[in-house]
Design a protein that fits this description.
Blueprint (H helix, E strand, L loop, with lengths): L1 H25 L3 H22 L7 H19 L7 H23 L9 H21 L7 H20 L6 H24 L5 H25 L5
Helix pairs in contact: 1-2, 1-8, 2-3, 2-8, 3-4, 3-8, 4-6, 5-6, 6-7, 7-8
Amino acid sequence: MRKDFSIVYLILFICILLPMNIAGHVTRISGLAQLSKPLLLLVLMGYFVNITRGYSSRNKTAILMAMVFSWVGDVALMFDRQYPILFIVGLGGFLLAHLNYTYVFIRSGKRIYTISRLAWIGIPLMMLYTVGLISNLWPHLNELKIPVFVYAIVLMFMGLAAVIRNTKVGYHWVLLGAILFVISDSFLAVNKFIFPIEYSDVYIMTTYGLAQLFIVLGLSKLIISKDHK
């Protein structure tokens, strides 16, 4: 029964992301996009609470906090053009979300990490990508240099933690989600600081929505698996 109801949450999440949010951005119906954006994480939280109910894990609180802080970031960035200070609020919300996800990624792996072939490739790529992104953004950041730099480093560590997780259950879901999160934030940063990207909101929200969904799917699978402790 719990799993059947969880499917309802997933269908609702996809419907809010695609027919409502993405379609709202494509058709320039801002009201539709604005209405749907705050609902995404609320529905995803409902899915996570429902699918993991009855399973004990010290990671559940941190995962929920990551989604709560992401929701704060979502709402703040809805109004940052009218109130620029809300960009910092949004940045802070997502920074805290990444810290919580990083904490969970590290704790949800085994205590002894073995670096896989994928990790040996992913670690330098993630670091080089972050250096390249910061280098391109730096001349355009003005007074936001330090906050954006700190955020980019935290984002990088979140990605690295996803790469080196030493667990098979949900690994690829979480890794794909982390990569999409980096891509989404890159679209947002380039669009805001370097040059406008046509239909930027479509790219940002598609990658962001799928990032959150895949991370939560992967972590949920781990929590309800028999191997999880």
